[in-house]
Amino acid sequence: MRRYPLWIIAAGIVLAVVAYIFFLKTTFVDPFSFRWNAIYGEGINPDGFEVRGIDISRYQDNIRWDLLRNSDINGQPIRFVFIKATEGTDLIDPNFNENFYQARQNDILRGAYHFFSPRTDARQQARFFLRQVHLEPGDLPPVLDVETRGSLSKKKLQRAVKQWLDVVEQHYGVKPIIYTGYRFKMENLNDTIFDDYPYWIAHYYVNELEYKGKWTFWQYTDAGHVDGVGQQVQDVVDCNIFNGTRQQLLDLTIRKEQIENIGL
What we know:
Layout: H1 6-29, H2 33-39, E1 52-56, H3 65-68, E2 72-73, E3 76-87, E4 91-92, H4 96-105, E5 109-115, H5 122-132, E6 143-145, H6 154-172, E7 177-181, H7 182-188, E8 199-202, E9 217-224, E10 237-242, H8 246-252, H9 256-261
Parallel strand pairs: 1-3, 3-5, 5-6, 6-7, 7-8, 8-9
Antiparallel strand pairs: 1-10, 2-3, 3-4, 9-10
């Protein structure tokens, strides 16, 4: 070190520190900066859509439904709420029954979703969902949440997903909604066998949904804030858009004759 002037050593240290900071920023900060923006109220709220809603699970605890029913997203009232019901073949969301009841009591259009597990039989998962969830006239169609394929190949995942959809569709007489992420859809579920199902696509912090196919719902953030859901800045909720008018949303709901056909 004594062979180099002090200023060269100092400059080298400064460059090393700058390079290290740049590495941390590009690797760990920038990819997740949208989360910090959302926490501090700077999340993107896409314009041009009139029907907004949320989805909830046990992670949104102690919901004040009296406040939620009168809250809004980007100036639009909350018209619908999807509620987690089940997962796999044995997990029931502990808040499902209360949330499902309160949504109807507070005149918010409601739906229920099942989180798909690639580790267990799809038909058993469908039957478990049907035993726990009893949709009524005016409810949104059942939802299958598909986010991981585990050790399944793409083809095996697609077959399993179709099995769940077929069992539930046969029961209710309506096509279930498929929830999935934009990239997961393109990589794993981009097959014509799913073309007739309504899609609920998750794609965060973009002004426009990049998915070019037909879609019915868009989950555009997982870090939204609405009155009635939490009281702290870290209390967040998923926010969604319906791709249509309020009447079209109502038209999507389950009809009385469909419920009567299954003897519920």
